[in-house]
Amino acid sequence: MAKDSDTLDSVLTADDLHLGSFSDKPPWSMAEVLAGRGPNWLEKVPILRDQQARFLPDLTRPPRLPPLKRAAVVSKVLGSALAAWRFKERGTDESSSGLSRRIRIAAEELGPTYIKLAQIISAGEGVFPADLVTELKKCRDQVPAVDFAQVTAILEQELGRPIDQVFSHIDPTPIAAASIAQVHSATLLTGQDVVIKVQRPRIDEIVREDLRVLSWLAPHLVGRIPVAALANPPALVELFAETIVEELDFRLEAANMIDVARVFSELDQGGFVVPRPHPELVTRRMLVMERLSGFNFDDVTSMKAAGVDTHNVIKTGLIGFLEGVYLHGIFHGDLHGGNLFVMDDGRTALMDFGITGRLTERERLAFLKMMMSATTNNVPGQIEGLRDLGALPHDTDIATVIADLGLDGPPIDPTEMAPEEMVKELQRILKLLLGYGARMPKSLMLYVKNMIFLDGAIATLAPELDMFTAVTEVATHFATVHGQTIASQLGASRRWNEELDLDGIKAGFGVDPARTDSLTYEELKARRELIRSRLGHRRLG
Question: Maximum distance among all alpha carbons in the chain?
Fold first, then answer.
């Protein structure tokens, strides 16, 4: 069928840029959708979210008997990995690295669900053991692609008609093939270039079966395997289930795209671009969206050749992410190099909204309290924020936590500690945190994951950036642009920028405020490497 050029031209003039942070040349208009006159799939989203929330406890409750066939496979693979570790590495200097390596190999053998779990753990620096995080980062980003004939079958089931009645072309070779879905470039009959995200066959059934196996297995691993500091195996399964189940319905992902784009627009945050989902081509297993292009996030040479200010990319990324968290309680929950790229005009295009952070009002205010307290060196406020977020029990005695952790004393520079002292202190803190009942709620895990990515982005795009200056600029932005809003929501009597404590910020980086005027990312990285090398010569237990 030939393109309808009149229709295409009229679509390209659609005016929806004031409603969402979209590209400048709309392939179709989102105005009707954003005005509340959306398609049928969007109207179902609140019901779908409610159903999901009610179904999750049943999915993660340990069953008396798991799906037996799958449980046998999982038990065999994991059991063999643990047996080999106990026989060869346990009790040696290679214990931690050996166990981590065997867990990674087992995850890859068990398939998409376990690869996804491994990838989530790999972003949990500071939450999971360092050796485990490092090893699981090796889990392949690509899994074998689904045969195109199966992709076609799924698309036609979702469309309810042959694909040639909607698309003039679909590239049979996927752009990306991940655990849950794969992505193909395509062209609509009306001429617009799009990408199609399509679920793997039976992935919904596979994930739910694997979650039941994991829910049954997790209690048996408590105390038997050093998986995590603040997320024991059952808690980790609950966290994983809450994260992955939302990815199994692309209607929720499309709604996430619309909501994040709208939030950026309301914040007047023009440094981001969100692809428009097609108003009529979104189903549970298929998501069609406009195609965007740009530089890979680590292609600094090409960015600079195009005149892109990489420092501004970092600043915009950090401020935009934090504004979404603190002011609107919604943010892209899975930032990494494969989910974003930099356009030639310097704006950052965000992709893959399957994992999106959505905070309750209590959680949002807890994050806001943590941020404001951190920049004003208010230690009790920071601990209260963690408590209100659910990382500590609601009846936690704040003063006791501060005293036990030594947070009421002068800052300690870890680079000046002997390896034995460092390990002993980390063991003491870990024991105390577990004794308090500390845990890692989903919202905090996604926040930490993204902050770790942004930290690494600085290393790639602006390694010479002075960290104190960067923190001060971000704090000043929030104070001048959002100061009154923050003060009214937290009941603060003074403007935030009047209380900024630069010495406290320096102490937060573990340096002596009196002796340190600046700290570039390269210098910070060197400090971290020194700490890691010292810890590497001593086992944590």
Answer: 74
Rounded Cα–Cα distance for residues 292 and 192 (Å): 11
d(CA 219, CA 82): 16
Same domain, 240 and 381: no
Q: Quote the crossing angle between the two packed helices 442-461 and 310-323, to the nearest 10°.
A: 170
Evaluate whether 342 touches 457 at the Cβ level (below 8 Å).
no
- Cα(43)–Cα(251) distance, integer angstroms: 10
Query: pLDDT tens, 232-260?
Result: 678 778 888 888 888 999 999 999 999 99
Question: Tens of pLDDT along 361-375?
Answer: 999 999 998 888 887
Share of the chain above pLDDT 70, in %: 84
Domain total for the chain?
2
The reported pTM is 0.86
Q: Give the SS3 label for residue 234.
A: helix
DSSP conformation class of 125: B
Q: Is 369 helix (H, G, I), strand (E, B) or coil?
A: helix
Half-sphere exposure of 260 (CA within 13 A, CB side): 31
Task: Give alpha helix (H) positions in 137-187.
Answer: 148-159
Do 241 and 370 share a domain, yes or no? no
Full residue range of the structural domain in which residue 402 is found = 361-536
Tell me the backbone φ, ψ of residue 330, rounded to 5 degrees. -145, 140
Structural domain ending residue among the three candidates 215, 232, 248: 248
CA 521-522-525 angle, 5° bins: 85
What is the Cα 387 distance to its own chain's centre? 21
C-alpha distances in Å from residue 360, one per residue of 121, 126, 329, 396, 491:
24, 24, 7, 21, 19
Task: Please provide the average confidence, as pLDDT, over all residues in the chain.
Answer: 84
Residue 339 belongs to a domain: no
Contact present, 496 and 478 (Cβ < 8 Å): yes
DSSP state of 275: P
Residue 67: alpha-carbon gap to chain centroid = 30
Are 243 and 371 members of one domain? Answer: no
Q: For 163-208, what is each residue's pLDDT tens digit?
A: 999 999 999 999 988 889 999 999 999 999 999 999 999 999 999 9
Domain boundary among 223, 248, 273: 248
Amino acid at residue number 138: K
